[in-house]
Amino acid sequence: MSKSAHDENNTGYIHPEVANLKEQLDKGAVDRREFIRTVTFLGVSATAAYAMAGLDFVPEAEAAVKKGGKIRMAMVVQDMADPHTYSWVEKSNVARQMCEHLTITGPDNVTRPLLAESWKPSDDLKTWTFNIRKGVMFGNGEELTADDVVWNVERWLDPATGSSILGLLNTMVDTKDGKDKDGKAIKLKSMTPGAIKKIDKYTVEFNLKSPDLAMPEKLYHYPAMILHRSFADKGTDITKNPDLGTGPYTLAEFVLGEKAVLKRRKTKYWGDEPYLAEIHYFDTGADKSAAMAALASGQVDAIYDLPLDAIEVASAVPGVVVHEATTAQTGVIRMHINAKPFDDIRVRKAIQLASDNAQNLATAHRGRGQVAENHHVCACQPDYAKLPEVKRNVAEAKKLLKEAGHGGGLALTCNVGNTNGTWEQDSLVVLKQNLAEVGIDLTINVMPAAQYWEVWAKAPFSITVWTHRPLATMLLGLAYRAGVPWNETNYNSKEFDDLLTQAESTVDINARRKVMAKVEKRLQDDAIMVQPFFRSVMLAASDKVKDIKMHPTNYHQWNKVWMDS
Fold first, then answer.
1. Mind listing the pLDDT tens digit for each residue in 257-271?
2. Which one, of 220, 269, 9, 215, lies nearest residue 104 by Cα?
3. Assigned domain for 250 exists
4. Residues of the domain holding 127
5. Are 321 and 540 a contacting pair, CB within 8 Å?
6. What is residue 59's predicted lDDT score, i.e. its pLDDT?
7. Domains held by the chain: number
């Protein structure tokens, strides 16, 4: 990170809930991790939060390092024109070196100031005042101001942009009835008037319809990059205008499907100068064994998202280190709940009850991860609530299918693109075996990854990979709120939406967990998905790569990485 990752978030204001959270910490009612994360949302600096929790915050060591050099990473190189519409982390990993966010969430899942030097929430968490760091320069030589921030937020929340942030910042959005291009009735979302307001040159104010504790963390959602406000006028392509970000690097070369080369920018960077002079991303193709071969032969220094079947190989290569993180990354085998036969909840419940999620984790992902509970909230997320176990029940599944008129059997087809590895297809193979026991014949339709993403939200039944989010409320808002761009199940539940909004606005950790139990139960009872497990994720790197940290979302935060070569 640059120095900004550990700057104090001091505004002279202490939210009244901080004292209550400290009292709960002292009584053992909340743990230290939950306390630190929550009070930093409320404007307490990371250093102070660690101290309040009885921990010493140890900043990143400034040991002797070798400055200069380059890191070469094997990772898919995708079309990355418009950062605000990104739906893949890989795109953002390249752009993240050029463009930055108002906040930053580190590998420890604590959110700190970045382009914003501080923030202050109102007591009711409905008004958030962000102070923009002075002296931050875009690559084009112009200073970042509140006008840029306002322009970015308005663009994120413009439905014409097509950004997933519409679903995330739900408390800044109005929903109206409308029609799509085919005349079909849909819910249209757009920014609430006055939701973002310029106070002065370096201050903006977010005005929310309802309280939202996680506003600082949501501003690190990977499409929420801050661009110079001339971006739209220049063709909305960051690869052609790499000087419209504030980051320490600029894009020197870009060839779709081949490579992306970043070099330290020549104009002065506002933060600490990163150690690496260059960052090279090389696309080694769909066959991930090619990436492993490139690492073993020294052609690259690291592999993004090491595949399961390469772990033993990577571990056996001299000088290669495997880095692993427990995450909320997952594959969701989801159904269109308004498409036959999934419009019958008995069919959806039968599919859920037939699935052996523990077997799926053990077989499809080699046990590396955590068994999931069909509600897309992970035990590694602080807002997770433990529900009573719902056990696999073949007899009940058969009974439900018979009641739904499928006692003689049911044939289904499920799409898979293996976009993150063959474990996706392996997961469906396990499900196919499970479903056969209840009379469902599942055909697995394997598609090229690129073709899959063209239809990912349209197919009635498919498996989609979702990346980690620090809070479950963030993920659920993106995926399951009615009418949001990434709602691939067509789920539409006012009860769920209202409960999620309530969870987002509840500061008390234990009270929020009680609301989240209702959120999870609503999703589980509505049976919109089979979600077998959460994945551990891994990268492999040469031991010459120093101070690399595995981020649970696979975000590349390279400022303090250096090469010992």
1. 999 999 999 989 999
2. 220
3. no
4. 64-243
5. yes
6. 55
7. 2
